[in-house]
Structures are given as C-alpha cells and as structure tokens.
Amino acid sequence: MAAALTWRQVRRPYFFALFSVHSFFVAYSMSIVEIPRALKGEPEWIVGFVVGVFGIAGMLTRPLTGVWVDRGGSRQRWVRLGAVGVALSFAGYMLDLGPWVMVIFRCVQGVAMGVFTTAMLAIVGNMLPPERRGSGLGFYQAANAAAALYGAALAVFVIDRFGFGPAFLLSGGTALLALVLALGTGDPAAPPPRVAGTPGRGLHGLISPTAMLPALVFACVTTPWGTITAFLPLFALERDLGNVGLFYTAAGLAQLTARVSAGWIGDRIGRDLVVVPALGAAGISLIVLSQVQSPVVLILCALAFGFGLAATQTSIAVIVIERTPPAILGSGMATYTMAWDVGQVVGAILLGLLVDATSYSLVFALTALFPVAGVVLFLTRVSERTAKATVEG
Hints:
Blueprint: H1 7-38, H2 44-70, H3 76-94, H4 99-127, H5 133-145, H6 151-162, H7 164-182, H8 209-239, H9 245-269, H10 272-289, H11 295-323, H12 329-357, H13 360-366, H14 369-382, H15 384-392
C-alpha cells in the first residue's frame, strides 16, 4: 500500500480542486433557476420531468463512472469530460427548441455532472491525509456551496436584464472555467490498475456496499431538495415571495458554514451528533416552507434547510471515505453521489406528479417525512455506534 501523501504535497492541487468545483457549481446553481423559469407556462408535470430527468440520466450512468474511475490511471480525463459535457448542455439550452428537446440536453448535463463530481471527489478524497480528511472534505464541499451564494440570484438578474440566451451562455462559460482550473488539480494519489478479486464490491462493482446505506440517508435530504429546485421558483411566483434567487443565496450561506464546520466537529464529537440534528433541522424547515407567506420566513427556511443538507452531506461523505477501501473509492463516491440523482428523480418527477394533482404547499409538507425516515435509518443502520456494535458482534 502506498504511503499517504503529506499536506505539503497535496496543498497546491487541492486548492485548484476547490476553485474548479466552485466554478462548476456556479453553472449548476444558475441552472436551478434557469430551467424552471424557461419552462414557465408548461404544465407542472412537464416542468418536474424536465428538471428531474437530469437525475435519471445521472443515476443510470454514475455507477459505471465509479467503475471506470476505479480502473486506475488518471481520473483527470473524467473530470475534463464532465466539464465539457455540461458546457455543451447549456449550448443546447440556448437553442430554445422546446421542453422535449431540452430533455436531451438535461440528460447530457446529468451524465456530465455525475462524471465530474464522482471523479473529482475521488481525487480529493484519496489525496487528503487522514488527519485532515474531515476538515479538508468540508472545505471542498464548502467551495461548491459557495456557488449557491450568488449563482441562482445571478441567473435571475441576467434573465430579467438580458434574457435566457446570455444566462445560459454565462453558465456554460463557468463550466469551461472549471475545466481550465481542473488542469492544475492533477491526480496526485491516482490508484494503480485494479486487480481481480478486490474486496468490498457489490452488484459487480456498480454499487458500493459500504456506501449504500449512508447514501440512502443522504437521499432523505436530497429528495426534498429535488422538489425545491423543481417547484420553488414557481411557488415563489404564485405567492409573490420576491426574488427566489435569494433563497438559494441564503441556503448557500448556510451550506458554506455547515460544510466548513461539520467535518471538523464530526472529527471531534462524532458524526452521530452532527447528522441527527441536521436531519431534524431539514424536516422542520420543510414544514414551515409549506406554509410560508413572506420573503423573510422564506429566507429562514433556506438557512435551516441549507444547514441540514450540507451537514448531512459532509458527514456522510466522510463516513463513506473512512469505510471504503481506497482501491474502490470511485465506486463508493459514485454510490454516495447517486443520492443527488435519486433526489432529483423522486423529488422532481414523482412528487411532481403529486404537485399536479394537489398543490405546492401539500407536497412541500409531505417531503418533511423524508428527513424523519433518514433519522431512523441512520440510527438503526449507519451510525458509528451501530457500525461498532455490528463489528463487535
């Protein structure tokens, strides 16, 4: 087994990774507003399908990405492919050929985002020295959370001032900037080619058994987020809640704070004492969101949910990295990040059908059940205490 890299060896590529993932998520944050706004006037189920098909595409291909990343050699090629794919998807949105053509480019974006995030997270997770893993991963995820501080609000401003074409062009440009910055990241801890008989694989390497249950816990907050990204812009217009981009700015601020602190705190007091309160905050915020009538309360909901989402995400990521052998970390990261795709599919498409039959308010209230389920699953199957008891038993 190769010796762990020192912080001095990985400091420069790590910071390039921070700037690259930030730029990449600026494009994603802008698309959160751009896609639903571009579909204004379409039936809710069509809006939900176009938004959610992004997750279907990622969910179907992300496990394969994990296998490819684990085969050895530089993972940089997958990072570059992902950034180029996202830029091409925004070029497709600029054509404005209707929702069903947009579905094709949403699929491209979903696949490309899965490729980029899986490969980059495997690079960063493997390069970080063990003593800096929690805080290093927290800052890495804070870098993508920082994009939400202004990405969605910027999209609203550009759309209102210049139109959808320039907004999509700007989003594609930030994806290409991520590509340029990724060149400085390299892959300092690239694994050797995988040998047959590597332990710890499930479903022929497509799903990581060490990451599956933690990923399900994470999906309990990404599913409500999928509903929010699909329908909050239209919900805000319906209730005259002002610039909905400020919701994502506030959520991004909370995520930035939570991701910086969650890894550090978890290293010291344990992941259990971070994940359970985080899921609780997410559930409460969703109940309040379902009844919101003022922009101020909307911002408070954003802060609470942003904290819950980010603290859960960072803590679960560290759990997966600590429990997954380095040789198959790509598969572990693919399974973990698949929670984003599941959230888009269930939250936007399946619950979108329910929105069409009921109301935004009712569906936001129902999504509060997901964090509750996450608490139960975490305490019974995933927590550090449960894992320790399983090993000792």
